[in-house]
Design goal:
This protein is of the alpha/beta class. Helices cover 46% and strands 16% of the residues. The mean pLDDT is 96. It binds fructose -6-phosphate. It is an enzyme of class 2 (transferase). Catalyzes the first step in hexosamine metabolism, converting fructose-6P into glucosamine-6P using glutamine as a nitrogen source.
Length: 365
């Protein structure tokens, strides 16, 4: 049932304040402002040597964002790779390592193969899945759930923000267990997570403006997405979403890599979407953005009010998201990139919920 929405994807985008809140309530004790995992852990975060994550597609971008959290908040070394590469690399794994597999369906063939490899290597095996009864869940020592309900649209939206909510909580739990986060910092970070659903509701209100921008994107042949730090995987996710449902070629790039090649592509006909909420790295991203503006690139900036105030000239459009802590900002920043892809696809007239050549669950490699 799509409710009042034209597509499941739109319905699922709009469910996110609820699905994020539902997922967070599983991992947090909101009253006490503490992280509170319900699962019995077959390992001790304090003793882990390393975290190794594998996943595919959007779930891989969730892990790529989480890498920043685990490294920064828990001082835990992290590796992440797409499962189709990881499984054949057969990397050496350290004793006392945790392997974490992220999958909405829990049936993705490459992710399952990566899991079996890690289990065979004696790693602790955990998964983050949306389907409890799935194969990946069954073969894991501990299963962390995303509680976003069934996702019908082939393009993942609410599963991603649920994965991120769970991963942010797990990174916090790891940080507390490893002594990297004290009680005050924990309470502050938990409050940042608690404030997320209402910030997402506010971000969804920029839909009217996004429809206008999407109209112009639908005329583009290529679109570049730029981000730095945890906004880099958000940029890649934005590009993936646009490609898969609108069939417009898009690429996500680390903002600092621009001058190492892709800037050669920039001209008046190329929209460049810059994901840069205000944080300590924003200034760097803005200077990359100005390099694009100087070459006539059409810039669409996703930022908050502080970021907009510093952005300078030459920007075609600014999509404002609420100002939140830089911890949760990458989760919030996925909302406008979802809406941009969705509305661009609607203008293109594609089959948004069932894009050509794609399957919801990729059970063959
Ligand atoms: C993109 C998308 C895919 C999936 C990928 C992994 O919108 O939906 O990239 O994220 O196929 O699927 P799961 O999470 O089921 O392992």
């Amino acid at each position: 049932d799509k409710g009042n929405h034209r597509h499941f994807m739109a319905k699922e985008i709009y469910e996110q304040p609820e699905t994020i809140s539902h997922t967070l309530s599983h991992y947090l004790d909101m009253g006490a402002e503490r992280v509170a995992l319900r699962e019995t852990l077959p390992f001790d975060f304090a003793r882990l040597s390393r975290l190794t994550m594998s996943a595919c597609g959007t779930a891989y971008f969730a892990g790529s964002i989480a890498k920043y959290w685990f490294e920064k908040l828990a001082r835990l070394p992290v590796d992440i790779d797409v499962a189709s590469e990881f499984r054949y690399r057969e990397p050496p794994l350290q004793a006392d390592g945790l392997s974490l597999f992220i999958s909405q369906s829990g049936e993705t063939a490459d992710t399952l193969a990566a899991l079996r490899y890690c289990a065979g290597q004696g790693q602790h095996v955990a998964s983050l899945v949306n389907v409890r009864e799935s194969t990946i869940a069954r073969e894991s020592q501990v299963v962390f759930p995303t509680l976003c309900g069934p996702e019908i649209g082939v393009a993942s939206t609410k599963a991603l923000t649920a994965q991120l909510s769970a991963l942010a909580s797990l990174a916090l739990a790891a940080g507390v267990a490893r002594g990297a986060i004290g009680p005050e910092a924990e309470a502050e970070l938990v409050r940042a997570l608690i404030s997320l659903p209402s910030a997402v509701s506010k971000a969804l209100k920029s839909e009217g403006q996004i429809v206008e921008i999407a109209k112009s994107l639908s005329k583009a042949k290529d679109v570049l997405y730029l981000g730095r730090g945890p906004m880099y995987p958000v940029a890649m996710e934005g590009a993936l979403k646009l490609k898969e449902i609108s069939y417009i070629h898009a690429e996500g790039y680390a903002a600092g890599e621009l001058k190492h090649g892709p800037i050669a592509l920039v001209d008046e006909s190329m929209p460049v979407i810059v994901v840069a909420p205000s944080d300590p790295l924003m200034e760097k991203t803005l200077s990359n953005m100005q390099e694009v503006a100087a070459r006539g690139g059409r810039i669409i900036l996703i930022t908050d009010e502080d970021g907009a105030a510093q952005a300078g000239h030459g920007i075609a459009d600014i999509i404002l998201i609420p100002k939140v802590s830089s911890f949760v900002a990458p989760i919030l920043a996925t909302i406008p990139v979802q809406l941009l892809a969705y509305h661009t696809a609607v203008f293109m007239g594609t089959d948004v919920d069932q894009p050509r050549n794609l399957a919801k669950s990729v059970t063959v490699e």
